[in-house]
Amino acid sequence: TPPLPGTQSSPQDSIADPGKSAFHRSQTLGYRNGFAYSRLPTVGIGRERLYVNQLSQAELDELSNKRPTLTYGQAKQAPPSDFIPAHVAFDKKVLKFDAYFQEDVPISTEEHFRVRHVGIYYYLEDDSMSVMEPIVENSGIPQGKLIKRQRIPKNDRGDHYHWKDLNRGMNITIYGKTFRIVDCDPFTQVFLESQGIELNPPEKMIFDSYTELRKMPIRMYVTPSDFDQFKQFLTFDKKVLRFYAIWDDTENMFGENRSFIIHYYLADDTVEVREIHERNDGRDPFPVMIRRQRLPKAFVDKMKTFPRCVLEVSDHEVLEWYTARDFAVGKPVTLLGRNFFIYDCDEFTRQFYHEKFGITDFQSVDVRKPPPEEVPQFIPPYNGFGFLDDSMQNCFSLLPKPPRKNYLKMLENDHKVLRYQVTLESPNPEERKRRFILSYFLSTDMISIYEPPVRNSGIIGGKYLGKTKVPKPGSTTENAVYYEPADLTIGAMVEVFGHRFIITDADEYVLNYMESNAESVPAATLQSLRDHFAPRRAAVQAAERPQLLAPNVNSGQELEELVKQVQEQLKHHNYLSNSSMREAFLHHDKDASGYLDKAEFFALCNRFNLPVDNALVNKLINLCSHGENKISYQDFIRAFSC
Description:
- With 642 residues, this protein is α+β, with helices and mostly antiparallel strands.
- It contains 17 helices and 25 strands.
- Helix content is 24%, strand content 24%.
- Residues 91-196, 237-357, 414-518 form the DM10 domain.
């Protein structure tokens, strides 16, 4: 039945909380220092607090060890404690006694005896003793460990000192030297009293008169009124004034401006001059120009006859020496016949002059020479020899460096060439009949022109222009502008070093390249190429369609008439039959069937520049076609055999 109010067995009981979810019993097993032990539960089921009179752990241990004699008989005696050796029980336990001893000083007139304070240490673990004297600064006596750790003999019978023999207010003789024990530390006092030893009252430590005299403060002597060089040395030691100066020696032959650092040592009024070396200045690496010494400012009248080559200058020959007052920023100073101009100093020097002389004007002087005027560089006109970029490098340096190349562009456009057919613009009609091949190399932006040899034309064909960059008309040497693929359109004029060429035709690869890079090519250039190749592509597409509009395409009479028209145009252009064309078609006809695929056929036709109208060639290809993918190349070659 559910618990109802008034039915609980104790006032602590209450109605069960419906929100409780934990009804397990609490754990009675615990761990302490890695060992398991049992414990009484403190909470009940549902983590409710147990209101019982629990005993402490000490009371539980006492109850567990009790042995009631009435019930179980006589209680068992507890086992004796384990034996602990002295070196374990008294490990690192030392008794310390404060003592002193007195020794005579026979060779001193200031002291007759000396009292030396020591500490006597007794080690309980092995009954050994040692005597240590604290080190006193500037005592002049070897101090520290007087007697090393050992068992000290007590008498001639072989007995040794024991801690029972030590007490305050007693004398102890160790190796013929008597020590007076005056006190001990708190641990020693507690230990001896715990062992039943009654300690004597402590005594005061004795000090000798000479030691007390040394502890008195040092007498302060009054410095005499005259100048004290020793005081100057102690006051200004390691304090140096630093000035930055230049020596202008340009008046003499091969003279120049040289930078120096002047050091003035306040400790002894000496001066040192150091040279500032620059990289690759061509001078020997000797930093000191004038060694540290006192420099004279004014000499006596008889100084002219003084033998300075063998004797040093002293105070008798000098009226005045250089001092700190003689150096100032912005003023010249003459040191050993050399005129130095001081233009700056460091921060310590500024602070010293401000505190010592009240000088605050330390405006540094700019001694740097103004840079020479830049001579405008004029680039001479291009003389036509070599490339323009290579020739221009000779104007920039005596050792010209090759112009930097765009290696990424060269790698991306390697072996990519745009080929165009051009004609020469000339008033001579014979010159206008000449045909040239203009090649534009995309990797280097260079142009080469080649003229195919024509038999019996009277003109030697071959290389017309080697690979070079061709500047546009109006281009200058300062701002050279070269021809780009965007400038090569059908019908455009290309001026090559005074010769004008008209572009009449191009490879189909040019159109494919322009279409693949349409974002970087002007629309006019791309449209001119598309308009030029539109009839040719239409003829090719018509040849690939089924021949429904021309049912009599294989008519022999029509083919013969077309062959005659082609040969007449070849005779007009003085074209000779090329045996390499037949060999190329026969080479690709592996099975000797006389037919080739359209893809291979058009690829071979593009290799040979045929001087025939494109419409006539496309019509001839249509007459030689058999089926959708086969073309008879025998009839096609017969048309070009003159």
